[in-house]
Amino acid sequence: MIQQHELVLPRFKRGYHLITNYLNKAVTLPEQGIMHVFIKHTSAGLTINENADPSVRADYEQVFNRLVPENEPYYTHTAEGSDDMPAHIKATLVGSSVQIPITNYRLNLGVWQGVYLCEFRNNATSRKIVITVYS
Amino acid sequence: MIQQHELVLPRFKRGYHLITNYLNKAVTLPEQGIMHVFIKHTSAGLTINENADPSVRADYEQVFNRLVPENEPYYTHTAEGSDDMPAHIKATLVGSSVQIPITNYRLNLGVWQGVYLCEFRNNATSRKIVITVYS
Amino acid sequence: MIQQHELVLPRFKRGYHLITNYLNKAVTLPEQGIMHVFIKHTSAGLTINENADPSVRADYEQVFNRLVPENEPYYTHTAEGSDDMPAHIKATLVGSSVQIPITNYRLNLGVWQGVYLCEFRNNATSRKIVITVYS
C-alpha cells in the first residue's frame, strides 16, 4: 500500500535544521514499511544525522563551506549568486532523499538520529518535500 | 506491485549527463508509487540536480576533480589508471541509486530537477541500470 | 509484501568492510523487489563499491580522512574525541542507507559491487542495521 503527502516546509535560513517532527505529523504510520522523503529542489538536500547537540549542525555549515567553497575562479554557473553553484554540489553530496524503516508504527531511527533539511541558499523560499510511505 | 526493467544506456563520455528521458520511456508509470534507479557499476553514479543550464554540469566536473584529485601519492589502487580510484570515491559521494516519487502517473520531480548519469571514467563502456517501480 | 529484520553486526575496526554476506544470509529473497538497508547510527555509514581488491577500501580510508580532517580549529563539537565530528560528516557523505534491486531471488548487484559498512569511529561498538525487503 502507498500513502503519499506533499508538504511545504516553513522557510529556513541557510544551515541544517531538524525536520523529523514534520515527518511524524504528516502521515499515520503503518505497522511495518518504509518512509521515503524527497526534496523537490536542487540547492537544498536531506540527510540523517545527530539530533541532540546543535553544535554538530553548526559544524556541518563550516565543513561543507570548506568542502565546496564559493567564488572559485573556475565556476561558470555564476548568474544566480555566489552561493548557488556550491549549493548544487552540496545537494548532490548529501542527497535529495532519505528512506527510513517503519517498525511497530514508528520511524525506526537510532536514538541519536534525526532528519536534517540542509538549506544551502542564503535566501531560499519554502521547500517542498514529498513523503511516500509504502507498507 | 513491482515492475522491473534492466536498461543499457548509450556510452557516455566522462562528465554529467541528463538521463531523465530514458527513465520516462522505460516504464509505464502507475498513478502513485516510487521509482528506484540503480547503477550496476562502481566507477559511475547517479544523482538528481539542475536540468536546465549545461554550465552546472560542466562545473560539476571541475568541482569533483578537485574534491578527489587524480595521482595522489597515497593511492595504492593504481593498476587501472589514474582516473580509476578517484572514480570509486566519486561514485560513493554521489551514490549508486536515486528514488523518485511517482504522482498522477508522472515522476514527481521539481521543475528544475533531472537525473544525472555521472560518468567518472575516461573510457567507460555502456552502463547498466535497473529501474524498479513499486506501487 | 514487507519483510523486516534488525541485525547487530560484529564490531568492526575503523575502515571499510564488506557486509554483503550478512545481507544475503539475513533474509529469504523474493523473486523481484528491493532490499533497503539502513544503519541506525550517525558516525558510521553504508555505501556500495568495489568488492574485489582490498586496496580500494584502504584508499577510501586515506581519501575520506583528507576530505574531512580531524582537529580542525573551527570544530565546536569536540567533546566526544577528535574522530567524532569528522565521523558525522563522513556518515552524511556516504549516506545511512543503500537500496538494491532483487531479481530472480538474488541481489541484482553488478559483478564488482559489494556493500560496505563504513566505520568512522576509532572505538565503535557493534552497529545495528535494519533490512527491509519489499516485493
Using brief descriptors, characterize the structure shown.
elongated; 36% strand; 3-stranded antiparallel sheet; 135 residues; homotrimer; 3 helices; alpha+beta; 5-stranded antiparallel sheet
What do these coordinates show?
The first copy, chain A, is α+β, with helices and mostly antiparallel strands and 135 residues long. Helix content of chain A is 24%, strand content 36%. Chain A has 3 helices and 8 strands, in the order E-E-H-E-E-H-H-E-E-E-E. In chain A, the strands form 2 sheets. The first copy, chain A, has a 5-stranded antiparallel β-sheet, with helices on one face. Chain A has a 3-stranded antiparallel β-sheet with strand order 2-7-4. In chain A, a hairpin with a 2-residue loop joins strand 5 and strand 6. The first copy, chain A, is elongated. Chain A starts with a strand and ends with a strand. The mean pLDDT of chain A is 97. Chain A binds chain B through residues 2, 4, 6, 36, 38-42, 67-68, 72, 74-77, 85, 88-89, 91-93, 95-97, 99, 128, 130, 132, 134, and chain B through 32-34, 47-50, 53, 55-56, 58-60, 62-64, 67, 93-95, 98-101, 103, 108-110, 112-113, 134-135.
